[in-house]
Amino acid sequence: MGEFKVHRVRFFDYMPTAIRAMAFNAHTERLALARMDGSVEIFNFTDHYFQEKVIPGKDSRSIESLCWVGGRLFSAGLNGEIAEYDLENLRPKYSLEAYGGPIWTIISNTQGTQLAIGCEDGTVKLFEVLEEHIQFERNLDRQKGRIISLSWHPSGTHIAAGMMDMIRVFDVPTGHAVQRLLVDRGFGGSKSRETVVWSVAFLSDHTVVSGDSAGKVQVWDGHTGTLVKTHLVTKWDVLALSVSKDESSVVAGTSEGTVIQFQFIAPTLHQQQDKEWVRTRTFKNHTHDVRALAEIETAIVSGGMDTHLVVRPLLEKFDEKSHASGLRKIHFPHVIANNINLSCAKKAGLLLFQFPGQLELWRLGDSDEHGKPGDRLPLKRKPEKLLLLKRKGEDHICCSALSSCGGWLAYSTVSSVRIYRLQTDNNNISITKVSKLPKALHSAHQLCFSSDSSKMFAASSQSSVLVIALTQSECKYVHTLKPKSGSRQPIHLMTTSGDGKWLAAANSDCEIHVYNLQKLKLHCIVPVYGSCPSAMGIHPTTNNMTVVHADQQLFEYSIVEKQYTDWSRKLQKQGLHNVWLDRDTPVTHVTFNSKNPNQVVLHDMHMFCIIDQMFIHPCPCHNGLIGFSGLFYNQMTLRSLSEQERPSHLHAFKICKTFQVSLLFLASLLDDQSLVVVERPLLAITSQLPAPVRQKKFAT
Amino acid sequence: MATLFEGFTLCGLVQTSSASDSAIQGIELDGDSDHAVVTDSTRAVTLYKVSDQKPLGSWTVKQGQLLTCPAVFNFQTKEYVVVSDNKVIRVWKEEDLNLDKAFKATVSADVWRVHSAPGGELVVLFQRGAVRLLDSLLSAPQQPIEGILSEKEVIRWSTNIVAEKQHFVLFTTEQRGEHFLYVQRLNPNTLQKYRLEREDSGASPLSFSASLRDKHINLLYLYPNGCVYQSVVAVRGPVGLEGVQALPRSLRLRLPVGEGELGAASAVALDEAHVAVVGMPHPSARTGKDFLCIWNTNFQTLQAEILRIVWCYLGKLFVPHGKALSVIPYECQKSSLASALGKLRHPGIAVSKSSVAIPSWNTLLHGDQPQGPTKIVDTRKSVLTVVHLQPLQTGPVEEVRREVEALVSRGDAQDLQLSVGRLACQLVARSQVETAFYAPGALARLVQTQCLCHSMCPDLLLLALEHKDYFLCQLCLQLFPDIPEVVTCACLKTFIGNEVLQTPYSDNLLVPHLKDLNAPQVILFLQYLQFIYLKYSQDVYTQTPVLRSPTMTQIIDWVCLLLDAHFTVLVMAPDAKGLLSNLQSFVKSQVKLFSELGKIEGSLQELHKMKPSKDISQYSIEVIELF
Fold first, then answer.
1. Which of A30, A313, B297, B453 has the most beta carbons within 10 angstroms of its beta carbon?
2. Contact B621 A376 (CB under 8 A)
């Protein structure tokens, strides 16, 4: 198809932060995940684990524990506050001082009427869950020593609390501690150290399961307070426990990075009645502490210090191999692609990198040379960091944008939006903050500039979009574009057309609204598809919009004609190839080749793909047809073929995994037929982590 | 170096009535490199997995029918094709169980062979010389087939070759003792006929083999007198030339035939330098003709030997012999004179080797029949420079020296080589006749010209030994590249020096001669070797390479050889005890060192692997190509 120059950028040293807590909402099948920097991510497990929402972190916020009550999400942390989140506006709704010192854990009863928190000062505090708020109710009997972990009996009458060296069982109506279960200390040198009960689980039959810092998983009888069984599973800590919905299985996460499963089964075939908790399986998908665990219907979800979210399917729950039965490792938040902006003004590519605390502006290098495929060109100019812009305030940056002319830069936190004017001539760069901003513009979920840089668009609450006019002297509010559907969900994708006429915005309700920017009104709604759009782009010349969804489906929609294009219809009729559908990371960016209108450039974490509509669609139904082999070969395989063989294997999906050792963030075409690829090798992230407590050595 | 690996039996064979006929009609390749399609001489086709020696499928035609051509595999359609009773073409797939139910087509003329090659279409060659693509033939099976060959002209051998998108069918015919080669090009179809040169004896070639090399088809054929000839036909041959062309040939190899002529034998070219031959007597003159030999045609050396041959595919030889079909994997490495002849002079020693003029091997090939690799006879019959032979024949030693000096300083390089050889031979001959005459100065001067080698004047070194002229001996040992092992040992018996250790030799040939040394000589030699070894190992790091000093490897090699040859004698000799125990402790320490090195070998290899991984910098601009 041709040769491309690729700018391989590996200086984006983004580092995801460790996973601290997670909570799974079985009703909505959403997983809430808290990281060490105080950010919260929501994954939709019904839609290919798509990360549909991110609530940015805050310096002073730390989250130790998460808890769902119905569709409401609560967190508690060592800052001593309980917070409830506004999942529509992606910010904390309110936070509340609990007056018990640092909070270690938060749980709710099964009825969803009460919350309980465990505090540093030894109190278990109960809160009543009200319509719009929560209200302090009472304390249970205060204990000596901190409350590390809590578990509510499904009936709601008892609470088990993990503490130092012991577990207490409380009677909730009276508030009295009714049982005291003493937990042994470790052996040898650790004998002098207190045992921390990191996690407890209270089962319906009044069995209490505990995991502690001495490496034990213990099973207790909650009625009598007696120890039933001890499983010593590690030399280090057992940090997290999770119980399956039917209470037949418990999983424990350890500091070694292992997840160990226990099942309630009969140890022999003959005595099916005498069931006990038996250690069954060990999963090793992490290198560091497993701090957060959730056992869901068909899988074990785990996360921890090594920053990866792992969905490990339980294969006995599957009848056949399917998309869901494969192991998933989510290394990066999917929206990370939004953290990189590219502007290719004046033949100089500018890259804007967004970090939670700062923005970095880089200028790409340059080379005059030409080379043959596989060559690395000598650089005429090295890449250069032009600007480092630190955010103001405690809130982390949630979105940013760079105009295509390179003259404007904007970012937003949950509390404010800032716009800057950039002037670059040769080697000098000057930055001026735009001082007076319209009142309506106080925060944004997404920001983008029109292609001629005369307007800025800010995604606001209830899926609305603010249109701001930019001139040299001022910055003026123009209009608010509102969707007809009345959706309250936030916008997560926004893109404009090259001619400045159209703006498309996608929200978490899977709706895509297209607005006419000349008339400043809604043009059409793209037919709603059942999976969330993960990336979209409007073609600069044809104004056809390419949309890729979390389930890997691909559509092309003609904005002018308000219908899917013929190519898209044909593609859907024939069906996408399984090799395409089985990929496990969503497409995160769509861009186009301005020189060739038939080409669409897409990428996910592991590959980029140029779809050339002039080539045959690689569908099994095309086997042997008009000289096509029907095989979905990627570029590496094609390159290995001889020139005679190759033509029969060419197809529309040009998948390039040359950069597979690394993760890939962005592929975009600059003016001169070149691509920009931002890579973040996993190895570079691993090397920044602290040393694991135990490394697998050969033959040990 | 060509190596034959241990063979194994693929399957048993049914003995046919006549001993000369093979029970196998043909062996062809399948799509899988590990498969072989074996067609026996009567009714059955069997597909084997070669590495497992396991039949994967077998198909037979009904009793009364006869397979008349080996089954072939169609690489494009993954089907098998065979011809029964000359006219019936059968096509089937691997999963078909019954050959009778498979597709059949009867054609209008007798088929000689169906040929298949990866990357080419199937081609049918008829007995009268016509060629058709199988596809087009099957679309109209009863189409008339023209006759190309004249009356009484019969096909003897055929093959096909796919080259540069061109497809060729080659076949040879015989007509009244004359042999012809037909080269049929397909698409566009052209036919070229060549006449093979007649062998003097009027004999017919025993076997043919064709291979493609550098855009040329190389035809190799073997005559009963042991001559292996090669003819070359260009792939882009002279198109449009009418009539019969004469096909020039060149002699590649003359095999020792022994008495009489060969009855049945076969030669196959393995690569540029190696030819495998069966049905020949072994040169070591043992009786029986059941040897498979691989010959290096560049140096005319025998490289490996065992039994009979017929087919050769992908590094495997398929040889039916007796009651079994054997498979013998082989390997041919790039040939060098060194691997053909034995150990070379150590490259670390800066002897001006290039200036040592050895008669060109080519002159040998076209000259007399070679006697063996180490005996070189200058057969050039060109006019020599006029040498005043008279004083040499009769003059005193001093006069001879002066004459030689004058000649050496006068002659130009080319002529010098010839005249020096001649002179040396004459002087040596005179010395042998006149016991009183010996001209050490003149001979040394001749040796120092570096135009002389042992083969040119084999008696020179022996003469020097006889006269105990150690200076001349050393000079010869230093400067001659081709001293036979037996002479080296003879030198050893009389004196031990640096120089002996550095002469080139071949292990196998040296050991028998070493056995001629007696025990005290061996012990003395070993002591000497140990002494220089110790001397070296003390200052191994400070040692600078000195001219005429042997390397460590050479010393160790000689110690090994001596021990090999005389171990039993040395064990019995009481005065060798200390020496042997010293050597043993040395070997022990070496073994220990190597076992320690072996332990970390894996890690070291990993380091090696890590190196080529590209240095990943923070930024680069690369060019990629998408298809």
1. B453
2. yes
